[in-house]
Amino acid sequence: MNGIEFYKGLSAGINNLLNYKNKLDEINVFPVPDGDTGTNMCFTLLPIVEDCNDKITKNIGESLNIIADLALESARGNSGTIIAQFIHGMRREIRGKDRISINNFSDALISGYDSAIESLMNPEEGTIITVMRDVANKSKKLFEENPDINFEIFLDKCYQESVESLEKTKNILKILRKSDVVDAGALGFVLLMQGWLNSVQKNTKIQSQHLNISYDHEKIESLKKDIDFTIKNKYCTECAIESNDIDKAELKETIKSLGDSMVLAGTKNRVKIHIHTNTPTKFFKICGAYGKVVDRKVDDMTKQEHTIHHTGSS
Question: 273 and 199, same structural domain?
Answer without folding.
Answer: no
